[in-house]
Amino acid sequence: MEVNRAPIADPYDDAIFSPSGGPVWHWRALWRQHRWKGFKAELANHLGAWRPTSRHLLLLGPSAGWCLPQHFLTRFETIEAIDIDPLAPALFRLNHGMALARSRTRLTFHRLNLIRAFDQILQTYPEHAILFSNMLGQHRFHDEDEIRAQSTIESFRDRLSDRHWASFHDRLSGSYPPGSALPITSSSFQAIDSETLATELGLSGQWLDHLTAHVLPAGTGRHLIAWPLLRDWLHIVEFGSVEPA
Ligand SMILES: C[S@@+](CC[C@H](N)C(=O)[O-])C[C@H]1O[C@@H](n2cnc3c(N)ncnc32)[C@H](O)[C@@H]1O
Predict the structure, then answer these.
(1) Which domains occur in the chain, in start order?
(2) Contact between residue 175 and residue 230 where contact means Cβ atoms under 8 Å apart
(3) Among 27, 87, 135, which is best to mutate for testing ligand 1, by the most ligand atoms less than 8 A from CB?
(4) How many Cβ atoms are within 10 Å of 232's Cβ, its own excluded?
(5) pTM, to two decimals
(6) Quick check: 156 and 230 in contact, CB under 8 A?
(7) 109 near 83, Cβ under 8 Å?
(8) Closest by alpha carbon to 194, among 159, 219, 227, 169?
(9) Nearest residue to 241 via CA among 131, 134, 135, 159
């Protein structure tokens, strides 16, 4: 796909290492797979219940699909995957290539900054269902201006009002004592602000707010899932799916 380069700079556009993907992320994902089983199972349930009408998927920020269930990916006839990580296409194919070949799902990767190319991507694929695959909560690492980053994240809510879309994204992340029980997560139809969320989940200490509290439209079902990213580092991830208004 040919795209115009919009002027918002992203320091990680042509980088191998980035705070939201790249070799460090892939290494961690490989070694933590067995510890992520619970998170992946809960995510798979939510993705399994999401039934967009299109058999074509725009998969945004999929990395190598370490957390994505094959029974979800293989439902589609075509997948257009968009990620800036140069390692993502080969590793994604290693993880899912055989299953996609069996289901005859055609996968195409585009190395693009989807924040900058978003309008063009939407125009090029007007009928595709859209999944943000844990990238919206990473955007604050790609834009040092927190207010602008939050407004960019929230802008997707309005730009997608006529589309079937879903997202799972970080809400909070922070350290937690190794071996302690994961917080019990939950579902609601209300956006919960980050401070209240941390209190409700019994989290203490310093937590990073990923600026995604309001990306889902009001009234959307929000499912919170605990994700033990590292032995001592926890993310609270939110999943929601949205139908055209
Ligand atoms: C946490 S990883 C996603 C993990 C993925 N859900 C999985 O199952 O492995 C976030 C991904 O979003 C990508 N990403 C972040 N910002 C992006 C942007 N502006 N444009 C394209 N890709 C982006 C990163 O390169 C990274 O691969």
Answers:
(1) 22-240 (3.40.50)
(2) no
(3) 135
(4) 13
(5) 0.94
(6) no
(7) yes
(8) 169
(9) 131
